Amino acid sequence: MKFLDEAKIYIRAGAGGPGCISFRREKFIEYGGPNGGDGGKGGDVWAECVEGLNTLIDYRYQQHFRAKNGEHGMGQNRTGKDGEDVVLKVPQGTEIYDYESEELLADMIEIGQRTLIAKGGNGGWGNLRFKSSTNQAPRRANPGQPAVERTLLLRLKLIADAGLVGLPNAGKSTFLAAVSNAKPKIADYPFTTLVPGLGVVEIDGREFVLADIPGLIEGASQGAGLGDRFLAHVERCAVLLHLVDGTSETVGADYEVIVQELADYDLGLAEKPRVVTLNKIDALSPEEIGGKLAELSAAGAQDVLLLSGATNKGVTETLRELWREIAGNRAENSQINQDAQDREDGTGEAPKWSPI
């Protein structure tokens, strides 16, 4: 399945059905009054977050989605049938924007979440609604409300607990393959990874999701290379795993490039907790490792872990460090959600404030 993380689509809610102008025509009823029914309501357009999807590829082959119009009202005070809704099924982590105004309409982050994107038009009133003491035989009915049309931009940001960042060929895919059942392409040349990948990692009986994105290069935050368009996929991560290629001659400069690109990209990536590892130590001597660590320390890297994705050396320690950050983030989010729920239920302490 191809990976697609952005799609432009066109939606149209259903128009309301027109009301009916009708009168009773039963035999022996001389002054049969109005009995025109209302039109049916137009169908809505909904977005629903579902399991089992991790790409927007379906929206490459179908871009137009139209809900059904409401049917017109009928005599004998019969209301027209409502139009059928349209449901856009999207993967977890999808953001939905109005293409024209760039307004964020919905952020689909929970499985089962449903959001109304375009509301169908109400049906028009039949002539029975206009009967009054001064107008016993109204000959007017309302048309239904017109359809709402929108152009949407769907953007997928993968939901992962930890994200892998580093220069091309730093060993990110090798590490992902070593710690999970993911099967990324691995080869000894830059930009082997062309699309993000996800893997479920288990450590000490606990599981978390790890995301691998294409390697970053200098200027990636401004559009250079492949990694710039995929940095969004690590925005939601609790921690970043920064892999530095130990076989590089410029490990200090390599580290600084990634740190600078994360800072330039903004959106809080530079402030995220980051675990730094010197990778590929199986290809280095102890003296070389010491020199590389000194270079990284001079570049500002602290508490650098030693790692070899090929031989699994240091993998357990790295995963435990990642889990420590993830567990702390989950506990913090759980407390925030509990406090919000308590305030909603009226059992928690109201937020303190003071008048200016």
3D structure, described in words:
With about 350 residues, this protein is of the alpha/beta class. It folds into two domains: about 1-155, Spo0b-associated Gtp-binding Protein, Chain: A (Distorted Sandwich), CATH 2.70.210; about 160-335, 3-Layer(aba) Sandwich (Rossmann fold). It is built from five helices and 14 strands. The protein has helices spanning about 60, 170-180, 250-265, 285-300, 315-345; strands spanning about 5-10, 45-50, 65, 85-90, 95-100, 105-110, 115-120, 150-155, 160-165, 195-205, 205-210, 240-245, 275-280, 305. The strands form three sheets. It has a six-stranded mixed beta sheet, sandwiched between helices. A five-stranded mixed beta sheet has the order 3-1-8-5-6, with no helix packed on it. It has a three-stranded mixed beta sheet with strand order 4-2-7, with no helix packed on it. Helix 3 links the parallel strand 12 and strand 13 (about 275-280). Helix 3 packs parallel to helix 4 (about 285-300). The longest helix has about 30 residues, at about 315-345. The chain is elongated, with a radius of gyration of 29 Å. The two termini are about 55 Å apart.
